[in-house]
Amino acid sequence: MDTNMWRHPYQEDKQLLDKLLSESFPGRSAIREQLQMCQVRNFDENGSLEFLISADAPRADVLYVIPAEGFFQDSDGVLAHALLHVVNGIATEIEVFKEDNSVVQDKRRFKDIEILPLG
Questions:
Q1: Is 109 buried (19+), middle (13-18) or exposed (0-12) by CB count in 10 A?
Q2: I need a labelling partner for 50 at 20 to 30 A (CA). Which of 23, 40, 44, 84 fits?
Q3: DSSP conformation class of 7
Q4: DSSP character string of 12-54
Q5: What is the pLDDT of residue 1?
Q6: Are 21 and 29 in contact (CB under 8 A)?
Q7: What span, in angstroms and rounded, lies between the C-alpha atoms of 3 and 17?
Q8: What's the pTM value of the predicted model, to 2 decimals?
């Protein structure tokens, strides 16, 4: 996989985005609008995504740099996390990692993610 190429989000990317935006938090609607026409690229083997957002996209007035976090159990039983990062009102990335620092084995489990809205 060439992780440096910008592309439209795949179905599994969209599932993860939808899940992270499923709970209400300040700035969520602006982030949704930003991500509607964004491009993404992976920057690790876990499925972490960097976003390319239009310069004229609305700014999200979030309370925290990480306004939403999700977690799921990977197929090996280890807990994995997905953190939505927002910098200066723009969604910049979703960071995905496992608690034991191993690589996520089953990205289909993104659909089972449980969300912690942080604000």
A1: middle
A2: 23
A3: B
A4: HHHHHHHHHTSS--TTHHHHHHHHHT-EEEE-STT--EEEE--
A5: 46
A6: no
A7: 18
A8: 0.91
Determine which helix (DSSP H) or strand (DSSP E) holds 114, and give its type and residue range.
strand 114-117
Instruction: Count CA within 13 A, CB hemisphere, residue 15.
Output: 12
DSSP for residue 108: G
DSSP SS3 for 91:
strand
* Cα–Cα distance for residue pair 13/19, rounded to 1 Å: 10
**pLDDT digits 0-9 by tens, 6-44:** 999 998 899 899 999 999 999 999 999 999 989 999 999
Say what the pLDDT of residue 39 is: 97
Residues in the chain: 119
